[in-house]
Design brief:
heterotrimer, A alpha/beta, B alpha/beta, C alpha/beta, A: alpha/beta, Rossmann fold, five-stranded parallel β-sheet, 5 strands, B: alpha/beta, TIM Barrel, nine-stranded parallel β-sheet, 48% helix
């Protein structure tokens, strides 16, 4: 599958500093043809939404390993809505217990991923949601 | 999306290459062993361990990592663990504490008390260690960006209780270089951070001679995806940077090197793990002797703690992790670790429960008291294969360190994002190898059940009131403390930060005694030093 | 745009989408598009130099300083595309994080995609579009490889060339004739060893070798963002060069150079399609026949 021409923002909200997952997915997305912007650490949901607007991205992928995923997804979705970026799809990856999935979907996540998934499956699912599969 | 669908039902025969890419012989031969090169236990170059009598004199420390929520709750958990036979405390701190934000800071909001205990001032520290005998316990803090402050808080607790500082034992991680590379709790730019670390080491060596003021860690780069060889090489490259900094400050490596300690992960390739420790111990001793002219044998000794588990554990079929941790625990012992932490089998996806934490500790006890592997010193020493692999790993480590030197040294490689980029690419490679089935993870990419889901079992949920309670106590403290004392000590600290010749630790200890908060101390230093700018480069 | 005015969310979104549209526009789309006219021209500054020399970091620091003094600034930063997947990591933004967060600053990363000259498709129109928005200054940061130096020369008023000490950058630049393109030469990371020597060498090269205009002497400046040195001098040089451009450069000539670049960009892309569309039989023709077949294709091939 290819994500050619798709622009995707990979962001690390909160204070969690384990960024290798974010970097791995950024590299894998590039290998699938996407144009990827990675924010670096400790970005607020508000900042992430602003970058999403300036860079006119198709999707935002949040990488969260601190356990604060529900709060951070909800807050980022709110900031995106306020910035009138409803068209931007929101994904989240990290250490996320299955039982939190409904809450995350409810908060606005269009895809939820974890480290034990195959990376090609993650890319395929993102492509499907972004409708380029 | 079935992971195993595209893979063969069973993996092939074991390949000739170790995870670090070393091609091993089908059978090792006697010419691999050069007894003189290997040396004797307790003697330079310490291939066979730093103690003449191995674990006979003293077993390793069983050090389990714990800490969550408020100081009160963590204190209760510590008392429980000690009653279970644990001999060392390991303090996990929440992210606001690690990154230098007070619990009321907007940056802290969602994370107070979440991945560790919130420790923002002396009042918290007094509660955290209440009723614990600090002269008997060795306390280890996983803290880096704010290590100097957390250490100062620990001293302040001892001071208040009238405990002589010289009696304190324990470790602060205090290794900022790997934070820039893999763990992310940096605060200040590299230069002033290096100064603060040197200040802490020098002050600690004088005030708390039994305390380890730094634990140079490879664990996090390893867990991020590096090979065993890279784990050691990157860590030793960082260690040399600290040694250079201390030597530039006029300190004598014959003295300070005695209190440098190391911290690594143990993953699943048993002999690579055993040999990486043997190789690292020998290489470190040789470099200190040859590059820095260290002559004191004690200063040449490579002392290290380990974690068994980490990213070698799986969220799929989590009970398999108990076996993995057991094997890794044995590798750590045969590699000669001084302290061992075993992960709970459910750590891949949740905060361990009391039951899973207990199994982790029992694993260590079984290895220590039932398996008999600690009975004789370095029982693998002289094995054709072990000595062959030790030599090869040492060569490979040296190669990587030379590459970093050629780049312009580790500090430069970190400032430019070169090391970070290398690690990210390695992590992607490792992930792809697992996806393709070239690296076997039982229960994850092979030997799955037809309908496999992750059973999360008993999930430990934090009391949602914890962060509210932490914040309330924090606000009460700010009202009740002597504000002028806080300001006075912070002003002095700021002035000292400007003067490179000053050691900042006495000033930070004063701030802590005055109940200045971690956030206030960090902000004071930020005013002079600024913040690290991340060199994102992929 | 007034100095006090920050960009609204709606303006940002509209501008961002315009740039995306241009990034994706085919030759046909461009030919059909209505012209964009800028009421007044902005000062255009281009930064070029080899990868890793610190362009983004320097641009970020400069933009932060200038925005703080009230200038409305747009930054267009081009990052290289992977030759294998055509995907890209757009990493400039994070390196100019604080500047990009200023409400008076609009920062946009673009991938070079298929462009061969270190630029991106329709870059000339992107710059005009930003100009039409009314920014005071537009900063263009190139990929820093290939022919970027010559392309950037056509598109901006002032070319700043960055080089790093002890990397052989200066020798390479000299060989490639790049020094002549620069209006200002910066020895970046000037706190590193070898910076002073490099600066000296460059000064003498510029003075005795490549001096091309009596009126403008290319300054060679040591700048270190890490230690905050040389930034004032660089800003003074930028202002001095802007003044020189105003006095010495012919506006008509500049306009025509940019028009040539703009049409060249389209034709180069069209030519690639044309070449790809040639049949094996056409490729076997004698040169004159192949040439005219290619020209025919150039006219008839539909652009992607």
């Amino acid at each position: 599958m290819s994500l050619a021409g798709k622009r995707i923002l990979i962001a690390k909200p909160g204070l969690d500093g384990h960024d290798v997952g974010a970097k791995v997915i950024a590299l894998a997305l590039r290998d699938a043809g996407a144009e990827v912007i990675y924010t670096g650490l400790r970005k607020s949901p508000d900042y992430i939404a602003r970058v999403a607007i300036d860079e006119d991205v198709d999707a935002v992928g949040l990488s969260i390993l601190s356990g604060s995923h529900v709060d951070l997804v909800r807050e980022t979705a709110r900031c995106l809505r306020e910035a009138k970026a409803d068209n931007v799809k929101l994904f989240v990856g990290g250490t996320i217990p299955h039982e939190d999935n409904p809450a995350l979907v409810d908060a606005g996540a269009a895809g939820i991923f974890n480290a034990s998934q195959r990376i090609d499956d993650v890319i395929a699912e993102m492509a499907r949601v972004l409708d380029v599969g | 999306m079935t992971t195993a669908a595209e893979l063969a039902p069973e993996p092939g025969q074991p390949g000739a290459r170790t995870p670090s890419g070393i091609e091993v012989p089908e059978v090792a031969t006697p010419d691999a062993v050069d007894a003189a090169h290997v040396g004797a236990p307790g003697q330079y170059p310490f291939t066979r361990g730093i103690f003449e009598n191995g674990y006979r004199g003293r077993l390793w420390t069983f050090r389990q990592y714990s800490g969550f929520g408020s100081a009160e709750e963590t204190n209760e958990r510590y008392k429980f663990l000690i009653a279970q036979g644990q001999t060392g405390l390991s303090v996990a701190l929440d992210l606001p504490t690690q990154c230098g934000y007070d619990p009321t800071d907007s940056m802290a909001s969602a994370e107070v008390g979440k991945v560790g205990v919130s420790l923002s001032n002396l009042a918290d520290a007094e509660i955290l260690f209440d009723g614990l005998d600090l002269t008997k316990l060795s306390t280890s803090f996983t803290i880096n960006g704010t290590a100097a402050i957390v250490y100062a808080l620990y001293l302040a607790v001892a001071d208040r209780r009238g405990i002589p500082r010289a009696k304190l034992t324990g470790t602060i991680q205090n290794d900022i270089l790997k934070e820039y590379v893999a763990r992310g709790t940096w605060i200040f730019p590299v230069r002033p951070s290096m100064r603060l670390i040197a200040d802490t080491i020098l002050y600690s060596n004088e005030q708390t001679p039994r305390f380890n003021p730094i634990s140079i860690a490879g664990a996090h780069v390893r867990d991020a995806g590096c090979t065993a060889v890279e784990e050691i090489a990157y860590t030793l490259a960082n260690a040399f940077a600290y040694v250079d900094e201390l030597v530039a400050r006029g300190a004598n490596p014959n003295d300070f090197a005695k209190r440098l300690s190391f911290f690594f992960y143990v993953h699943m390739d048993f002999f690579e793990e055993v040999c990486k420790f043997r190789a690292a111990r020998r290489y470190w001793a040789r470099m200190l002797k040859e590059r820095y002219g260290v002559t004191d044998e004690k200063a040449l000794m490579f002392r290290f703690g380990v974690v068994c588990g980490g990213s070698s554990l799986t969220a799929q079929q989590p009970l398999n992790n108990i076996v993995r941790v057991g094997i890794e625990n044995m590798a750590a012992v045969l590699g000669g670790a001084q302290s061992i932490f075993t992960c709970a089998y459910d750590e891949a996806f949740q905060i361990p429960t009391e039951a899973s934490a207990e199994i982790a500790l029992r694993t260590q006890q079984i290895v220590a008291y039932e398996s008999g592997i600690a009975r004789t010193v370095d029982p693998l020493g002289g094995s054709y294969y072990v000595e062959w692999l030790t030599d090869r790993m040492e060569e490979e480590m040296e190669k990587v360190i030379r590459e970093i030197d050629a780049y312009g040294g580790t500090v430069r490689a970190i400032e430019d994002g070169y090391l970070q980029s290398r690690i990210a690419h390695r992590a992607l490679e490792r992930k792809r190898d697992t996806d393709r089935g070239e690296r076997v993870v039982v229960g994850e990419n092979f030997f799955r059940h037809a309908e496999q889901t992750t059973d999360f079992g008993e999930v430990f949920r934090l009391d949602p009131n914890v962060s509210r309670k932490v914040i309330e106590r924090f606000e009460r403290l700010k009202e009740s403390r002597d504000g002028t004392a806080v300001t006075r000590t912070l002003v002095k600290l700021r002035a000292a930060a400007l003067d490179e010749r000053e050691n900042l630790l006495p000033y930070i200890v004063d701030c802590c005694h005055a109940y200045a908060t971690v956030g206030e101390i960090v902000d004071t230093l930020k005013k002079e030093w600024g913040e690290f700018q991340e060199p994102v480069r992929l | 745009m007034s100095a006090e005015r920050a960009l609204s969310g709606d303006e940002r979104r509209a501008l961002a989408r315009e740039i995306s549209r241009l990034a994706n526009a085919s030759v046909t789309d461009m030919l059909a598009a209505p012209p964009v006219v800028a009421a007044r021209s902005a000062r255009r500054i281009g930064f070029t130099g080899p990868p890793g020399v610190g362009k983004s970091t320097l641009v970020g620091t400069l933009v932060e300083r200038r925005a703080a003094r009230g200038a409305g600034i747009a930054v267009l930063a081009i990052d290289p595309a992977s030759p294998y997947s055509k995907g890209a990591i757009l990493g400039d933004r994070i390196r100019m994080d604080r500047a990009a967060d200023d409400p008076r600053v609009f920062m946009r990363s673009v991938s070079s995609r298929d462009a061969q000259d270190g630029m991106c498709n329709n870059v000339a129109d992107m710059l005009t579009r930003l100009e039409a928005h009314g920014f005071d200054e537009i900063v263009l940061e190139t990929v820093g490889v290939g022919q970027a130096e010559h392309a950037v020369k056509a598109l901006v008023d002032t070319v700043v060339l960055l080089m790093q000490p002890e990397t052989g950058d200066a020798i390479q630049a000299l060989k490639a004739g790049i020094l002549e393109v620069a209006d200002i030469i910066v020895v970046a990371k000037s706190d590193l060893p070898g910076a002073a020597r490099m600066q000296q060498q460059l000064v003498s090269t510029v003075q005795f070798g490549v001096q091309r205009s009596a009126a403008w002497t290319t300054p060679v400046l040591g700048v270190s963002v890490e230690t905050s040195t040389g930034l004032e001098a660089l800003e003074e040089a930028l202002d001095a060069h802007a003044q020189w451009v105003l006095e010495h450069r012919d506006a008509g000539e500049v306009r025509h150079t940019r028009a040539r670049y703009r049409v060249q960009d389209l034709i180069v892309r069209q030519l690639e399609h044309a070449l790809a569309a040639l049949t094996p039989a056409e490729c076997d023709m004698p040169l004159a026949g192949l040439y005219s077949a290619t020209l025919d294709r150039l006219r008839s091939t539909k652009s992607g």
